[in-house]
Amino acid sequence: MSADPLLTVDGVNAGYGETKVLHDLSLEIHEGEIVSLVGRNGAGKTTTLRTIMGIIQPTAGTVGYRGEDVSEVDATETVQRGISFVPEERRIFPELTVMENLEIAHIGGGDDADAMSIEEALGMFENLQDRTENHGSSLSGGEQQMLSIARALVGGADVILLDEPTEGLAPYIVQDVMDIIEELNDRGITVLLVEQNVHVGLALADRNYVINQGEIVWEGTSAELEADEEILDTYLGVTA
Description:
It is a single chain. By secondary structure, this protein is α/β, with parallel strands linked by helices. It has one domain (about 5-235): P-loop containing nucleotide triphosphate hydrolases (Rossmann fold), CATH 3.40.50. Helices cover about 35% and strands about 25% of the residues. Helix 4 packs antiparallel against helix 6.
């Protein structure tokens, strides 16, 4: 692990209008890590990702990327810098084909010469390889999730923010998505994972942050979180 974090959130307050959701929230992610952010519904997980992306501007604190303050950078420039957001609702273009979705992402992504080619991305997703001419609306939930991740890859992502990637998927598809996240990480992509399924986060992450009411209340390794029954029960409502 490098000494300096790749991505930092330092003392951030953020929310929607008069409603403050994040309260002096801080976390950091080092290059090559998988870090999970876990908490109950409404704890502020998605708001954290949206603030990192520049969809929401923090009212206090800073977001840093590669040592630079990017707190006021908008979402379009954030993508061009190499950070991609895969939202829970996936947001593919349903009226476009798989190939057209990927071509648009490739054009709109960053200038990274190392961005994955469309052909290489398709090679990671067997279900998509045979459906390149299918419209997004005809894909299953799992296939739409894979297409959303593939779009981030061809856009040149160095960091991928994944919001509930296994939500609503059948158990065997959940395992496929977990395998894909591990393969992305093996290829050098840093991952910040938001998961309602705590056990998915425990299985994948190097480190975990527990968020409650917009504040980080615990951080540590997956082994440490799995062993902390009080934290699991109090803030996540589960037992390991």
